[in-house]
Design a protein that fits this description.
Largest sheet of chain A: 6 strands, mixed
Largest interface: A-B, 75 and 49 residues
Shape of chain A: globular
Structural class of chain B: mainly alpha
Distance between the termini of chain B: 57 Å
CATH architecture of one domain in chain A: 3-Layer(aba) Sandwich
Order of helices and strands of chain B: HHHHHHHHHHHHHH
Bound molecules: iron/sulfur cluster
CATH class of one domain in chain A: Alpha Beta
CATH topology of one domain in chain A: Rossmann fold
Oligomer: heterodimer
Number of strands of chain B: 0
Shape of chain B: globular
Number of strands of chain A: 17
Structural class of chain A: alpha/beta
Distance between the termini of chain A: 43 Å
Largest sheet of chain B: none
Strand content of chain B: under 5%
Chain lengths: 446, 348
């Protein structure tokens, strides 16, 4: 048992305390971003198979209408139109996560009030577990914390296990981002309803909403609404990076280390992001599809940083225009500064897992001189997985990739960036590890 | 509101993470230099201009040889990383204050070239470069390196210790007589450790703690060294476990002997506060490059240094054992690291 746990502060060993940078958006209530002229909806916005378009070029679609169905018998979710308008094209477009992807481009109808269509009214208390999971699939829900794993499939897997607790992960440990914080604060009822729905789907008795101790306002907001039987509780954990990583949070709350390759379900746990839970709570009763989400748009050189409701498929260009980008040049990142995706093209759309758009200029650390490893052990002390990034880095420079995996557990690294963050020699450790993993994968394929 | 009308690719594309913590290697090294300065100043206060001259000479020797070898190898100058300054200052602090300057310069050159650049420069050195230089002169000039002069000599700021200005390859002027004339009370020319070893005399621990005993320039005030180390720890630039483990190792080992026979063996406190132990623990053993990175490796490394120091002091031919203990532990560091790899999170 860790000493910190004995002192009763819920946390995990190692990790880092990066600057928070949350002050610009922390207190900004979520506002709606003006609708863009068009949205670009990649047919694949989830882990697994892409959805299959069922609309034609030139067709009029309503906001919230189903435009692509889940690939049958595969890990896949459907897709809904995020604006009312005309399908202009279905073609290859750039995305943040990789190569160009088939996307449906919808031209927004300028005069439309943009009211989403509703489906059948549903009451989860009258639904079977299977029906709930099917409904979650039909709304096109994926993990909104960035994983983009289809939520229905996760819950279906959990049905095979004895789940006792659903943990809603509201840690949001990445600097700058306040999406989950605002969602929890402003959507208390939806969050709790979503929790109940998920708890019923996996037959869990207990629910925990986990927040870091820099978000205590959430505690106050939730307190009055928590069920009296104590089935859903709020737990506070230390503000520390990467507290929001599933295995770190589980350790902080329960003191057990999730073995690599094992699902939380094997410990009787279901971990879901708070925004996912809140969206399920908002959409399921009316049988609606998932078409927009809360996004923190922040960073340097913005006149109006804040938390915005953004239709899926909104381009970064539109976002920069609307929030008043005044800089000359900046780095654009989808997600946080520790693990976010760099973006090269301004017509890249916000996708389902995009929780933040970050514009980095002054607060990005410029590339510094890379120096040899001075064996300061700071990376070893930072790594939440207890790897030896120093040794891994030295091996990576010598291209001894196999040894990195076989003796130093390279594949346990989840690329949280803590080691690179602390390294005084500016060694691009995470980058080296990504390359090493790719090389090992390639070798295995041959 | 300046709106960008045309999409243009953002040029500077990097991968995560995009932010980094502040101290870079030069910053850390610079702070180690800052932390060493009070120790140096105190040593100059005790021993006068001879100590100052020695520091300047060793530091210059280190800087110049680093620059020279970088030039030879066609590499970018590594002077800005400040590590050569640390080597120079540390080296001066381990030498007797009246050490002939030319020998000090030689020690610096050897330390940097054989101890550091031969291995590939900063990050690759197996041994602490300052100790390599010191070990060399220990072997080459056994008399000069064990000639101690008294502290607080009245004329220390106006006159060099006679041996300081010895010409290269000439026998340094004898200092014994000079020492007798300047010493405040009867000066025997022996360090507390030598007194303990050869004459069974124990210097009071408080004198050691505040540092007014004979010894090498920097091994005299344990208190000051501890304070300077605390500064580095507070700034997150030194791993406190290292000096702590060295001190613990020394204490445990010394305590065992003391319990065996309190009349023959000194107390653990004497062991900790005498000689170069404090300087070694705080500033030399903690040379990051030559110490392990794994948590248990760090602890074992420190304990090993403490243990060896006590053994050498009590049973070896030399009065002081810190230097060889650290060099030995440096050599053992990769081995220590290899069998103390941390247990991966989630592994049973
Ligand atoms: S990126 Fe990998 S090696 Fe580095 S701290 Fe995170 S888990 Fe550890
Ligand atoms: S933090 Fe960087 S310099 Fe320090 S041990 Fe790790 S890799 Fe080496």
């Amino acid at each position: 048992m860790n000493l910190l746990r004995l002192l009763n502060r819920k946390t995990f060993p190692h990790g880092i305390h990066p600057p928070q940078y949350k002050e610009e958006t922390h207190d900004k209530p979520t506002r709606r971003l003006a609708f863009p002229e068009q949205v670009i909806l990649p047919l694949q916005q989830n882990i697994g198979a892409p959805s299959i378009a069922i609309v034609r070029k030139g067709q009029m679609v309503e906001r919230g209408e189903l435009i692509a169905i889940a690939a049958p018998d595969k890990l896949s979710v459907p897709l809904h139109a995020s604006v009312e308008g005309t399908v202009r094209d279905i073609t290859l477009m750039p995305t943040a996560t990789g190569p160009k992807t088939r996307s449906s481009i919808i031209q927004t109808l300028p005069s439309s009030p943009q009211i989403p269509v509703t489906g059948e009214q549903q009451d989860y208390r009258q639904m079977s577990r299977e029906e709930i999971i099917a409904a979650i699939r039909d709304m096109g829900m994926v993990g909104l914390g960035g994983a983009e794993f289809p939520t229905y499939a996760k819950l279906a897997t959990s049905m095979q296990h004895d789940i006792h607790t659903v943990i809603a992960n509201g840690c949001e440990c990445e600097p700058f981002i306040t999406t989950d914080f605002r969602v929890m604060l402003e959507n208390v009822q939806n969050l709790l309803l979503g929790m109940r729905i998920v708890m019923k789907a996996v037959a869990a008795e207990k629910g925990i909403i986990a927040i870091e101790d820099n978000k205590l306002e959430v505690m106050t907001a939730l307190q009055a609404h928590l069920p009296e039987d104590g089935s859903i509780k709020v737990e506070v954990v230390e503000t520390k990076y990467p507290q929001g990583a599933e295995q770190m949070l589980i350790y902080s709350l329960l003191g057990v280390a999730l073995p690599k390759g094992k699902l939380p379900a094997s410990l009787g746990l279901e971990v879901i992001n708070v925004a996912t839970a809140a969206e399920i709570g908002a959409l399921l009763p009316n049988g609606q599809g998932f078409i927009e989400r809360t996004v923190t748009i922040t960073g340097d050189d913005l006149e109006n940083p804040g938390n915005y409701r953004v239709p899926i498929g909104t381009s970064l260009q539109h976002i920069l225009d609307e929030t008043g980008f005044v800089g000359e040049e900046a780095e654009l990142i989808l997600g946080g500064p520790m693990m976010g995706q760099p973006v090269a093209f301004l017509d890249t759309p916000v996708h389902k897992g995009t929780g933040a758009v970050l514009v980095l200029d002054e607060r990005a650390t410029p590339n510094r001189n890379v120096q040899p490893c001075i064996k300061c052990a700071m990376c070893v002390e930072a790594c939440p997985i207890h790897l030896n990034p120093s040794a891994l880095g030295l091996l990576a420079y010598k291209h001894r990739y196999q040894e990195m995996q076989e003796q130093f557990h390279l594949n346990n690294c989840f690329e949280c960036g803590s080691c690179s963050f602390v390294c005084p020699s500016n060694i691009p450790l995470v980058q080296l590890f990504r390359v090493a993993k790719a090389m090992n994968r390639e070798r295995k394929l041959q | 509101m300046a709106k960008h009308q045309h999409a243009h690719p953002v040029v500077d594309l990097r991968t995560s993470p995009y932010i980094r913590r502040a101290p870079s290697v030069p910053q850390i090294m610079r702070n180690v230099v800052y932390a060493l300065l009070p120790v140096c100043a105190f040593s100059v206060y005790l021993f006068g201009i001879s100590a100052l001259a020695l520091m300047i000479v060793t530091t210059l020797a280190c800087l110049l040889s680093e620059q020279f070898f970088c030039r030879m190898a066609g590499k970018k100058s590594t002077l800005p990383d400040f590590s050569a300054v640390i080597t120079g200052l540390l080296l001066a602090l381990t030498l007797p204050p009246g050490f002939p300057l030319w020998m000090g310069a030689l020690a610096g050159i050897i330390g940097i070239s054989m101890g550091k650049l031969l291995f590939g420069g900063i990050g690759y050195n197996v041994f602490n470069p300052a100790l390599v230089g010191r070990a060399f002169v220990q072997a080459a000039f056994p008399v000069a390196i064990s000639t101690w002069t008294p502290t607080l000599a009245a004329n220390r700021f106006s006159e060099f210790i006679p041996s300081t200005l010895a010409l290269p390859f000439m026998t340094p002027a004898p200092t014994a007589e000079w020492s007798q004339t300047v010493a405040i009370d009867g000066f025997t020319g022996a360090t507390p450790l030598a007194l303990m070893k050869f004459e069974g005399v124990m210097v009071r621990t408080s004198d050691l703690f505040f540092g007014t005993t004979a010894g090498s320039a920097g091994e005299t005030s344990a208190l000051l060294i501890l304070l300077c180390g605390a500064y580095l720890v507070a700034r997150n630039m030194m791993d406190w476990r290292l000096p702590a483990a060295v001190i613990a190792g020394t204490a445990i080992c010394a305590e065992c002997f003391y319990l065996l026979d309190p009349d023959t063996y000194p107390t653990p406190l004497f062991m900790i506060f005498s000689g170069g132990l404090m300087l070694g623990a705080v500033f030399m053993a903690s040379d990051m490059v030559a110490s392990p990175v794994t948590p248990w490796g760090i602890v074992l490394y420190g304990l090993l240094i403490g243990l060896l120091t006590v053994l050498i002091r009590l049973f070896g031919g030399l009065t002081e054992g810190v230097m060889y203990a650290i060099l030995f532990a440096n050599a053992a560091s990769p081995l220590l690291e290899s069998f103390t790899q941390p247990k991966v999170f989630g592994d049973q």
